[in-house]
Amino acid sequence: MQDDPSESVRATRTTAPETRATPADETLIRENLRLKEELLNARDTLVGQEARLGEALGEARRLEAELVRYQERMQKLDRIERSPLGWILRTVTALRALASRRRSSE
Description:
Order of helices and strands: HHH
Number of strands: 0
Shape: rod-shaped
Radius of gyration: 39 Å
Mean pLDDT: 86
Number of helices: 3
Low-confidence stretches: none
Strand content: under 5%
Protein backbone atom coordinates (compact mmCIF):
# COMPACT_ATOMS: atom_id res chain seq x y z
CA MET A 1 0.00 0.00 0.00
CA GLN A 2 1.34 3.41 -0.95
CA ASP A 3 0.35 6.23 1.39
CA ASP A 4 2.90 8.75 0.15
CA PRO A 5 1.80 10.48 -3.10
CA SER A 6 5.42 11.03 -4.12
CA GLU A 7 5.92 7.25 -4.07
CA SER A 8 3.05 6.90 -6.55
CA VAL A 9 4.62 9.47 -8.83
CA ARG A 10 7.99 7.74 -8.65
CA ALA A 11 6.40 4.39 -9.42
CA THR A 12 4.63 5.87 -12.45
CA ARG A 13 7.85 7.38 -13.70
CA THR A 14 9.73 4.15 -13.48
CA THR A 15 7.03 2.06 -15.12
CA ALA A 16 6.05 4.54 -17.86
CA PRO A 17 7.79 3.91 -21.17
CA GLU A 18 10.18 6.62 -22.24
CA THR A 19 8.90 8.58 -25.18
CA ARG A 20 10.88 11.02 -27.22
CA ALA A 21 9.32 13.98 -28.90
CA THR A 22 9.36 13.74 -32.64
CA PRO A 23 10.48 16.75 -34.71
CA ALA A 24 6.80 17.41 -35.49
CA ASP A 25 6.00 17.39 -31.76
CA GLU A 26 8.86 19.78 -31.06
CA THR A 27 7.61 22.08 -33.79
CA LEU A 28 4.12 22.03 -32.25
CA ILE A 29 5.55 22.70 -28.82
CA ARG A 30 7.59 25.68 -30.09
CA GLU A 31 4.54 26.99 -31.98
CA ASN A 32 2.40 26.61 -28.86
CA LEU A 33 4.95 28.54 -26.78
CA ARG A 34 5.20 31.25 -29.44
CA LEU A 35 1.42 31.59 -29.54
CA LYS A 36 1.23 31.79 -25.74
CA GLU A 37 3.85 34.54 -25.78
CA GLU A 38 1.96 36.36 -28.51
CA LEU A 39 -1.27 36.03 -26.52
CA LEU A 40 0.38 37.47 -23.41
CA ASN A 41 1.76 40.40 -25.41
CA ALA A 42 -1.67 41.05 -26.94
CA ARG A 43 -3.25 40.91 -23.48
CA ASP A 44 -0.72 43.42 -22.13
CA THR A 45 -1.40 45.72 -25.08
CA LEU A 46 -5.15 45.42 -24.51
CA VAL A 47 -4.82 46.23 -20.80
CA GLY A 48 -2.76 49.31 -21.66
CA GLN A 49 -5.29 50.44 -24.26
CA GLU A 50 -8.16 49.92 -21.81
CA ALA A 51 -6.35 52.06 -19.25
CA ARG A 52 -5.86 54.85 -21.78
CA LEU A 53 -9.51 54.55 -22.82
CA GLY A 54 -10.58 54.83 -19.18
CA GLU A 55 -8.50 57.99 -18.77
CA ALA A 56 -9.96 59.49 -21.96
CA LEU A 57 -13.52 58.69 -20.89
CA GLY A 58 -12.89 60.25 -17.50
CA GLU A 59 -11.53 63.38 -19.16
CA ALA A 60 -14.53 63.50 -21.49
CA ARG A 61 -16.93 63.29 -18.52
CA ARG A 62 -15.03 66.06 -16.74
CA LEU A 63 -15.19 68.28 -19.82
CA GLU A 64 -18.90 67.56 -20.30
CA ALA A 65 -19.59 68.54 -16.70
CA GLU A 66 -17.58 71.74 -17.19
CA LEU A 67 -19.53 72.50 -20.36
CA VAL A 68 -22.83 72.05 -18.52
CA ARG A 69 -21.64 74.46 -15.81
CA TYR A 70 -20.71 77.08 -18.42
CA GLN A 71 -24.04 76.63 -20.23
CA GLU A 72 -25.92 77.11 -16.95
CA ARG A 73 -23.90 80.26 -16.22
CA MET A 74 -24.61 81.61 -19.71
CA GLN A 75 -28.33 81.00 -19.23
CA LYS A 76 -28.22 82.78 -15.87
CA LEU A 77 -26.35 85.75 -17.35
CA ASP A 78 -28.82 85.85 -20.25
CA ARG A 79 -31.75 85.96 -17.81
CA ILE A 80 -30.06 88.75 -15.83
CA GLU A 81 -29.28 90.68 -18.99
CA ARG A 82 -32.93 90.58 -20.12
CA SER A 83 -34.25 91.56 -16.68
CA PRO A 84 -34.65 95.12 -15.35
CA LEU A 85 -31.49 94.53 -13.35
CA GLY A 86 -29.63 93.94 -16.61
CA TRP A 87 -30.79 97.30 -17.92
CA ILE A 88 -29.54 98.97 -14.74
CA LEU A 89 -26.18 97.16 -14.95
CA ARG A 90 -25.70 98.18 -18.59
CA THR A 91 -26.55 101.78 -17.77
CA VAL A 92 -24.18 101.92 -14.79
CA THR A 93 -21.40 100.31 -16.86
CA ALA A 94 -21.90 102.84 -19.65
CA LEU A 95 -21.87 105.74 -17.17
CA ARG A 96 -18.66 104.45 -15.57
CA ALA A 97 -17.00 104.15 -18.98
CA LEU A 98 -18.09 107.70 -19.84
CA ALA A 99 -16.78 109.04 -16.53
CA SER A 100 -13.50 107.20 -17.00
CA ARG A 101 -13.04 108.71 -20.48
CA ARG A 102 -13.75 112.18 -19.13
CA ARG A 103 -11.19 111.75 -16.34
CA SER A 104 -8.54 110.52 -18.74
CA SER A 105 -9.12 113.40 -21.17
CA GLU A 106 -8.69 116.05 -18.45
